[in-house]
Amino acid sequence: MTALLLGALGLTLSLVVPGVLATARWPARAPAAAVVLWQSITLTGILCALGVVLAAPQELVGALGSGTPAGVAALLAALAVAAVIIIRLLASLAGVTHRSRTRRARHRMLVDLLDTAERHGELPDEVPAGLRVLDGPLPFAYCLPGRRPRVVLSGGALRVLDRIQVGAVIAHEQAHLRHRHDLVMESFTAFYRAVPGPLRSRAPLDAVHLLLEMVADDAARRRCGAAPLRSALAVLGDAVSPDGPAEAAGDAGEERRRRLSRLTGDDPRSAPVAAGAVAAAIALLVLPTVILVVPWLDRALSAWPL
Ligand SMILES: [Zn+2]
Predict the structure, then answer these.
(1) What is the rounded distance in angstroms from the CA atom of residue 7 to the CA atom of residue 16?
(2) What pLDDT score does 240 carry?
(3) What are the tens digits of pLDDT across the range 219-242?
(4) What is the mean pLDDT of the chain?
(5) Which contiguous run of DSSP H or E holds residue 131?
(6) How far is the CA of 157 from the centre of ligand 1 (A)?
(7) What is the DSSP code string of 257-274?
(8) Secondary structure of residue 195 in the 3-state scheme
(9) Which parts of the chain are beta strand (E)?
(10) Ligand 1 centroid vs 217 CA: distance in angstroms?
């Protein structure tokens, strides 16, 4: 029964919930809390998979009788499958992290070499130490996270944006760096790559990518106001970081439309929506534990001699 419940919860979280959450409108009102909910859904899905693998043979052993060769074989097989799941996840995380670090180090060296920031008098008075400007006609901006972070702007961006807009773009990129959004994306990318092809879904990757952009937009909006950020975004919207994982490049036009719509009118952020999302995230994480512990407690109490 425990395995059945965990299996149903795991399948619901991996096949039904992502589609519903990805198309919901409320995450735009609480993007940071929605990211926490996506993390909880992913982690709970993993816990459910491990729970099914470990609980199913235990229930089978109960039917076969403990100590029988079939029961022992079922338990050993379950432990092996659980180990494969954990090793696959850890190997994927290590691979994604290593590739990102290597690519970023090379990229950082290149932008340091090609930097022309000192030749651009149109930069705002206060620019971050790691700002680099690359000559070229295309307007773009992105950041390179890490211990020595960089914010990269193109000469084309400086030509089409005024100083206040450039300040808003820099504030947006700095929010990505400050909150280490790269680590969040890496964890989702690692999970995506670890899941076997037929079971994997891009919905969490695309949704979290957009939500992190909204979190950075909110930080820039607080510092510079919505208007300069909105007009800068309208010009730079199609520029994406060449450093990001290939899987995280969703529909750029649709992403820009949704980001622009939240920057029009009143600040859409809502504390009650955020609190509800975080509460749901915590409840989800507790659920597999309850499903495992309640039957165990039930058995333990029924075995009590009174
Ligand atoms: Zn961004």
Answers:
(1) 13
(2) 53
(3) 999 999 999 999 999 888 555 555
(4) 86
(5) strand 131-134
(6) 15
(7) HHHHHHTSSS----HHHH
(8) coil
(9) 131-134, 141-144, 150-154
(10) 7
Phi, psi at 221, each rounded to 5°: -65, -40
Tokens coding 62: 């109960």
Locus of tokens 């499903």:
291
Taking only the tens place, the pLDDT of each residue in 159-200 is 999 999 999 999 999 999 999 999 999 999 999 999 888 778
CA distance 267 to 227: 12
Q: Is the pLDDT of residue 303 over 70?
A: no
pTM of the predicted structure, to 2 decimals? 0.87
Name the DSSP letter for residue 151: E
Q: How many residues does the chain have?
A: 306
Amino acid symbol at 192: Y
Ligand 1 geometric centre to CA of 233 (Å)? 10
The terminus-to-terminus CA distance of the chain in angstroms comes to 26
The 10 Å CB-count burial string (b at 16+, else e) for 178-193 is ebebbebbbbbbbbbb
Cα of 92 vs centre of ligand 1, distance in Å, is: 25
Distance 226 CA to ligand 1 centre (A): 15
What's the gap in Å between 302 CA and the centre of ligand 1?
A: 56
CA 102 to ligand 1 centroid distance, Å: 21
Chain centroid, CA 293 distance in Å:
29
User: What is the SS3 assignment for 153?
Assistant: strand
Q: Which two tokens stand for residue 151?
A: 């914010």
* Range with top average pLDDT, 43-57, 103-117, 249-263, 289-303: 103-117
Task: Compute the distance between CA of residue 161 and CA of residue 163 in angstroms, rounded to an integer.
Answer: 7
Q: Where are the domains of the chain?
A: 2-302
Distance 215 CA to ligand 1 centre (A): 9
* Contact (Cβ atoms closer than 8 angstroms) between residue 99 and residue 185: no
